[in-house]
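Reagents: none. Just compute today. ATP synthase F(0) sector subunit c.
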Amino acid sequence: MNGIDLLPLGVSLLIGLAAIGSCIGIGLSGMKLLESSARQPELMPELQGKFFLIAGVTDGAFIIATGIGLWFATVNPFK
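Predicted 3D structure written out:
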């Protein structure tokens, strides 16, 4: 078995683990947003803006990992 045989497994792990991490991160931050807005409703606009910033950064990391994985799948640098 060589590196070319393991490339699909590596790409799927890269994309899958990034997706799982992104979903868990956004879920936890959304949970904390709802909890904090229930405690102090007057801070909701500020907290919502920060939440969307964090959600965008988290999704950006997933999209970058997906792009790198698909690049490795199509270019196959191990030939």
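Residues 23 and 44 are 22 Å apart (CA to CA).
Action item: order primers for follow-up constructs.
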